[in-house]
Amino acid sequence: MQQSHIFTVHGLNSEVRQVLEQGFGSVWLVGEISNFAAPGSGHWYFTLKDERAQIKAAMFRNANQRVRIQPQQGMQVLVRAKLTVYEPRGDYQLIIEHMEDAGAGLLQQQYEQLKAKLQAAGLFDPQTKQALPTRINRVGVITSPTGAAVRDILAVMKRRDPAVEVIIYPASVQGQSAPQELLQMLQRAIARNEVNVLIVSRGGGSLEDLWCFNNEQLAHALFACPIPTIAAIGHEVDFTIADFVADVRAATPSAAAELVTRDQRETMQVITHLEHRLARVWQAQMTSWQHQQRYLQQRLQQQHPQRQLQQNSQRLDELSNRAQSALLRQSKLHQQHQQQLQQRLLAAHPKRLLAPAQLQLQQLQQRQQTAMRSVLKQAHLRLQSTIQTLQVVSPLETIARGYAVLQNDQGQVIRDPAELAPQQVFNVRVAKGEFKATKVGD
């Protein structure tokens, strides 16, 4: 019988350590910290466990100095570690290389996985991106109607180009219902087909706050959207899946508003520049005509063609008049265009809506006052009727007609003479006063 190889304890532990380290490499785990210890050496020692098992772990100082969280008892963490054996005791353990909060870490891992998947599917391909329209009259904004993002977008667009119409498609931009609401608003905007470009936006936040924009279904819907899309989500450093899928990414909501509007000052500068160019061209043309005229005059002086001179002079006057007329027409067209822009600005001014609203308010106030006077009058009439009814049935009216009310000492009404004893004094009340009386006889 062949004798088996005999290990020493140290040798066996060393072999097991090599098998574990070579067979597994780095692994990712999620677990709860227990028995945490941080001795003076700066290393961390703890147990990583779940509801069914546990494993010892160590994180040396050169690695734990890069950890952004403070480990605590009971904390759920996501770690990257190497599997090994602590040979002196034969303990199976983890050497932690990286640690982060389990919630944020898992979200980041899911984000990276979805990003890689969609990138492989071609959703980020620059060749599939649509260019923004050169002329934009109506902009759709999918965002929270009460958030800071929509206020920034509206403020920038009002300042730069108030003539551009904005349609808000309201949706939650945070929480469990947010992805579905965003998807519904995107589908509604596509179905209506009423805008030139769509902005999907919200303000800044953490990875959890922006998570609804990392939805795979929303990403496919953005990719298939026939309307050019702009993603303006969070701050400049924030990136979501929607940023990669959209046709254009804006660093902030305000930057998105600037992309879809033209500054009025730039338009006026263009008009002024064109006017200057026209004036220069006209001046150059006039100079050229003057040179030509002098040249022709010199030739005429040499050849004395009086008739040709007259024709050329007439032609020069005609061209001059046509040039002046053309310049005036062009200037008038520019002025008319500028007036049209001003009229559009005035038409969109909220003061135009204020006067009808004030008139309606006055009419409602007058109707309210009329209704209140009618109600008070009816109430007064009912009160008078009630008073008259009460006066008719009042016992005082009965007494005034010659009747009397008899009362005993306790103030009780006497309805039968038998209720009084002989010689008993009682009170008699008549219309103009009252007096005492005594019962006589039996």
Walkthrough of the structure:
The chain is flat. The mean pLDDT is 84. It has twelve helices and 13 strands. Helix 4 (148-160) runs parallel beside helix 8 and helix 5 (178-192) packs parallel to helix 6. By secondary structure, it is α/β, with parallel strands linked by helices. The N and C termini lie far apart (149 Å). The strands form three sheets. It has a five-stranded mixed beta barrel. Strand 4 and strand 5 (91-101) form a beta hairpin.
How are the elements arranged and paired?
Blueprint: H1 9-24, E1 26-37, E2 44-49, E3 54-59, H2 61-64, E4 76-86, E5 91-101, H3 102-120, E6 138-143, H4 148-160, E7 165-170, H5 178-192, E8 197-202, H6 216-224, E9 229-233, H7 241-245, E10 248-249, H8 253-259, H9 264-303, H10 306-347, H11 351-393, H12 395-400, E11 405-407, E12 425-430, E13 433-438
Parallel strand pairs: 3-5, 6-7, 6-8, 8-9, 9-10
Antiparallel strand pairs: 1-2, 1-4, 2-3, 4-5, 11-12, 12-13
Helix pairs in contact: 4-8, 5-6, 9-10
EC number: 3.1.11.6
Keywords: Cytoplasm, Exonuclease, Hydrolase, Nuclease
Family: Belongs to the XseA family.
**Ends distance:** 149 Å
| Subunit arrangement of the protein | single chain
Strand order in the largest sheet: 1-2-3-5-4
Q: How would you state the average pLDDT, rounded?
A: 84
Helical segment tally? 12
Radius of gyration: 48 Å
**Which regions are unreliable across 5 or more consecutive residues at pLDDT < 50?**
none
Shape: flat
The SS-based structural class is alpha/beta
Extended strand count:
13
Order of helices and strands: HEEEHEEHEHEHEHEHEHHHHHEEE
Percent of residues in helical segments? 40-55%
Please summarize the sheet with the most strands. Answer: 5 strands, mixed, barrel
Strand portion, in percent? 15-25%
GO molecular function, one term: exodeoxyribonuclease VII activity
Subcellular location: Cytoplasm
Subunit structure: Heterooligomer composed of large and small subunits.
Catalytic activity: Exonucleolytic cleavage in either 5'- to 3'- or 3'- to 5'-direction to yield nucleoside 5'-phosphates
